[in-house]
Structure formats: C-alpha cells, structure tokens
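Narrative of activities, Objective 1.

The group set out to show that a structural description can be obtained from nothing but a protein's sequence at a throughput compatible with the screening campaign. Below is one input-output pair from the validation batch, recorded exactly as produced.
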Amino acid sequence: MEKSDRIKELVEILNKASDAYYNDRDEIMSNYEWDAMYDELSALEAETGIILPDSPTVKTGAEENVGSGTREAHEYPALSLAKSKDVNVIRKWAGDRALWLSWKMDGLTLVLTYDDGKLTKIMTRGNGTTGTNITYFADYIKGYPTTIKDKGHLVVRGEAVISYTDFNTINSMIDNPDEQYANPRNLVSGTLGLDVSRAKEVAERGVTFHAFTLVHTDEEILSWGKRMDYLADLGFTVVDREPTDSEHLQETIDKWTASVRSGNMDIPVDGLVVTFDDTEYASTGSVTGHHATNAGMAFKWQDTEAETVLDHIEWSCAAFAISPVAVFDPVSLEGTTVTRASLCNISEMKRLGIGEDRKTNLTVIKSNMIIPKVIKADAHGTLFNIPEKCPVCGAPTEIVTSAKTDTETLHCTNPDCTAKHIQKYTRFVSKTGMDIDGLSIRTLMRFINEGYISDFADIYNISAYKDQIIELDGFGEKSFANLIASVDKARKRHPANFIYALCIPMIGLDAAKRLIAFYGTNGFFEKIKETNLSSEIFAEVDGIGIERSTAIVKWISEPKNTALLEKLLSIVELDNIEKAGEKTGTCAGLTFVITGDVHIFKNRDEFKAYVESQGGHVAGSVSGKTSYLVNNDINSTSSKNTKAKSLGVEIITEDTFVEKFGH
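Output recorded for this entry:
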C-alpha cells in the first residue's frame, strides 16, 4: 500500500473511532490501538509531508452531539496539547523553566465566561474554534460558582467529568444494553448533549467541573500556579497540581503515576499535563495544527504488554446481558498480578479472534494503568464456544444483534432470572433500604452468578458460603467478617426502610413512612396479609392515593412476593412503631380534594395544612372515599367535578368550607 493511501486509511479509521468514543455508546477500538495508529499516522505525515485537512493530528477531536444548544465561536481558541510518552521529549520542550504537573482528566472540556461577577456563558470546546452554548445547564453542573467576587471579564477552561462510582451506578440502572455507556467520558458527552428539557438528569448524574486553566482575567496574574489559587479562592473546584521542573519531572511523574496504579482514583484520567508557570511565556510560540506549542504538553502512559494463555471464558450474567470475561494465566502488569479481563461482548471476541480454552494466546495491557484489557488474540484458527444456557438460572440463551450498532450480545431468555433484577438487590442493600455495607453492585453480581443469592432472604444466609467467598478475588477473612457483621446489623431496621427495600412499585421511603405512621408496624403487615384486599384500601393514607394503593395490592397478590415477605419477616426484626392516635377537630374523619385557585387561604398548601390540623385528610384525586370536593368554580366541567358528580360527592366552595369547618 502506498504511504499516501495508508495515511488516508488511518485518518478515516481514527476519525470513525473518535466519533464513536465521543458520541456513541460502543467503542470500536481501545485507547491503546488508537494511540498506536495515531503514532503511525504522525510518523507518516512527518515523513511524507502529507497532512489531510481532517487528520486527527490537526483536530481537537470529534464534534460533540448536542441537544438544545447553538453553535458559537470561542472568544479564545480552545487548542489541544501536543502529547508524548517520553519524559525526555517533555524535558527538552520545557528547558529550565518552572513547571506544574496536573491530571489530564478524561471528560468533556467546557469554557466558562463571567462578567460583572456573574456566570454568563458555558460552552463546550467543540472543534476548538466553535463550540456549543449549554448555559441552560448552569444550575445542574457542580464545581463552579454562578457568582464571583471578580467583577471584571473572566474566562475559565476546565473538564466536566463523572466519577467511576457514579458511572457504574448509572450504567447498572439502564435497562437496554444498547443504551449503556462505554466509559465515563462517553457518559459525560451524552449527558451534556441532552435536550434542555432533561436538565435535571445532568444534576442526577453528578457532572462536576474541574478548572484547569484561567484563560483570561482583568487582574494581572502572571503565574499559572497563582492563577489556579485565584480560581480556588473564587470557589472553583480546581484540578490537583504540583510544582516541578525538568530535573525533578521524572520523580514527580512517578509519584503521580503511583496514585493511578493504586486503583484508588475515582475520577477518570488518561494522562498528565505539564504546564509552564510563566503564563506570558506560555502564550508565546507558534500554533501547529490545533496545538499551541508553549501552552503545555500531555504525558501519556506507555501501556505495558504481557503475553499469556487463555484458560477459559467466564460468562457473567448481568442485568440485561451475559458478558464474557477472559480468565488467563497470571501476568504482572504495572506492579500487580492480573488474571482476568472483560471481553465486552460477542462482537469484540470475534474482532480480537478469541478461540478455545488453553489454545489461545493473548496480549494483555492495563489501560491507563487501571483496567486490564485484551488487545490481541491468536487462536490458531479455532473458535470460542457460546453457552447455550444462562449461568445463573439455566434458561436458554439467545444472541441479540443491536439494530443501532450491529453489536452481538448474549442474553438470558428468562424474564425472572435473578441477575436481571440487580437494581432491586442494589436498592435492598442501600442505605435507604436495609443498609448493608460491603455489597456493591459488582459483589452482588458475583454472588448471584456463583449461586449464593437467588432472593433477598439469601443475603442473610451468606455466611454459609464462607469457604468459597474468601477464595474470591478481593475477599479474605477480614473483608468477609466485615460483610457478615454488616448483614447481622441489618437484621434490625425501621419498618419504613424495610418496606422501601422490598421494591414495591411506586412506594418510596416517604410513602413507606406514611404507611407506618398511619397503621403502625404490626397494623400494616397485618393489613397486607388480609385476603381480597380492595385496590383502594391504602388510598385513605395521606399521600398514598389510588395508584400507589393499587401498586401495593398488586404486589402482595403475587404468591412469590407473599412467600418472600414471610421469609424476610422471619429473619429481620422491625422497630415496633405504634399506630398514630385518632385525630380530633372540625375535619376529623373526613377526606377532602382541593382543586383550582383559592382566595381565603394563601395557597393550597396552607389549606391542606389546616385540614390536617383539624384531623382531616387531603387526597389528590376524587374517589368513593372523598367526603368533599372543594372547588371555587362549582359549575366547572373539569374531570374532578365530573367524577365527583358521578360518585355523588358534594362539591363546595372555599367560603362554604370556612362556614362549615372554620379557618
């Protein structure tokens, strides 16, 4: 192949991979493979002088998909940094000048603008010249103030990231595997590309801004370090940083690298950034493609390869797919012994060329020194076997091909498979539920796949599997003892937390507290054991209503739920909460529905508070249990009025209410 043709091919492959990385949910190659191709392209461009306009060597990255935002030009071009895996190259670039080292975070770059002490604009980096205005998310991203004491013109650049903890939690709650995110970077991009109508999801996903450059300030601050201190003083979350110089650069890099190797980093990073402290000098120099030569350099870790042999494929059943994990002969990578690596799905196994057990040679790396990854396989022409039965429940499996990406994944055909309900187990052990420490999503899935857990009650019998559990990776005598102590402690719980943990549809902690306050502990559990319960039986409880009442009755009518409840009640000890005393007052024993505008009470909340203070109950919808519908427009043809008339419920005005029940 001619070198010019290879350049064209590499540009096409890398741009396609970048687009998938930034905007899709399925990566088509690893960072290791992308870097290798990028280095090959850079070498060919230097050799031939051929640099295509869309080459990734002169672009900042793929354009982000955006929701409601509009494209705008940046006030200051958001250029990218040149990178190297060789410390000596960075030393030569740095000379004898004072330096700073900071994290190269793996998220989405944002540019914030302030005028007269107020946040006026948030832009994505886009292509470096133009970005997308997403100021409508200003109140939903953490890490920066919306007002500052600097009353001039201020521009800040930083990285919006989502932690690994939040990423894993969010992915575990997404039902469809096609909709799950490949990595935290991908999730941030997707989140900030949401439509403005879904702004609250940005806050729920924990997107946090970390400032890494003070692009402009009217103040005269010529030190990068002091600029970062200034941002911190203004209330920004600022990237971690440490002063250094060429002489001590390797030592500083080694120290920071050790932090990543420890496995305790919750914020995704994919390298380090070396910056000049002298901001005047940093602003000089030339611009090559989209790289400002003096703005800084990125240090990328050199992934270390290891050769090993595939022992077997472990098929792990998760919420909505059965994922393959390569188990191989132990290898040492970045100071740790590695024996396992996820293979993602069937398509990835085919791409790599995974073959039979003990007949497939593997090349393994630790991506960004954190995540073990298989980058190559030599199967000698053999093929891997796909299990025909689910490893958890034994039901037949099926291969599902994504209509969006053509990715093949393996699925269990049993809708009641325990592994498909991992979200329920996560809720059961959560702090709001039974508060059992030590049972993360990953640990729960391992226990379910090993057959130790098949329902909630099995969690309390986990000690029976001590010998097997202490042999698992990440477990030992001490961690197992801590887990058992946590399980034993969770045998005693407030009944509202217990009800929440049962995962009854539409019944959150607040609803559970209302039920217990109304019936008491014994009263509630005696009530749900009654036969032929009316779907509206619990609607009499303030804040429950017909829909929630119906959900409770439907849940308890399922024999499997009844059996599980009986089993759990024989294990746990619930606090004995007494039933609330009988209420007295002018509204005692009556149920009201309040609709429309009010004029005597300040608002409907005050109206409701008065009714409840007088022993009454305010419901959200009209039913046969409603005593009065309060509506100042008695002749309205609204749905509430219509239903009240059909049920014979008296409709009164607010004035009539005051005459009858006072104010």
